[in-house]
Write a structure and sequence with these properties.
The protein has two domains: 80 residues; 153 residues, Heat Shock Protein 90, CATH 3.30.565.10. 50% of the residues lie in helices and 19% in strands. The protein has five helices and seven strands; from the N terminus they run H-H-E-H-E-E-H-E-E-H-E-E. The strands form two sheets. It has a five-stranded mixed sheet with strand order 2-4-5-7-6. A two-stranded antiparallel sheet has the order 1-3.
Amino acid sequence: MSPQQQIEQLQNQLRCLEQLACLGQLTSTATHEFNNILMTIINYARLGIRNKDDLSRDKAFDRILEVSQRAAKITGTILAQSRRGGDVEPTDLGELISNTLVLLEKELQKYRIAVELDLQAVPAVMANASELQRVLINLLINARQAMPGGGTVWLQTKAERQHVVITVRDYGCGITGEDLPKIFQPFFTTKTGPDASGLGGTGLGLAACKDIVEAHQGRIRVESTRGKGTAFIIRIPQATAEPAIAS
């Protein structure tokens, strides 16, 4: 095996490790969420059985349907993340962001993280939706970890020439000027140990984000000020540009 082939093999192994780490985080979050959903279904099912009037039963059925649809979104996200590859197709970023926030809503609430949205109407992007969602999940979890005492994450989408720009900004601890150039290097992490949820830093998440964005012929950059917060800015070509996704 040539040195180049060895490098490519190691890169593929890194991608698999990061995907497993992301899937593990999602499974942990989803387990708690599904427990809440099941309890809601059980309670409203009991309500419908106890109350014979149509109004109470309709209320119970509506609530059961609502939380079941939420469960279906979560299941769909996890199944998509567990599969490698997938179709590249025009992707609605607004819907993708909405589904991602459904999945992470309870975790963000648990750690007192508010989400401010500035989702402007933007064209679709040609993307592998599950891969692009993995980038959003990584950035949102990183933002949450940067604010252990709680805070606000600001998420924006806007159109800019032939691109769509996604910004994920936190107002946490920030990154030092010394660490900033290394932030996308595999295995580099600014985390010194597990956070309140028991998660540490693998040093693979941001490296994978960079690989995924660049595979979509996009760019990701970071702006940060120590003690004031960090912003990750992603530029992805609009679907009309039809970028070829690197394998």
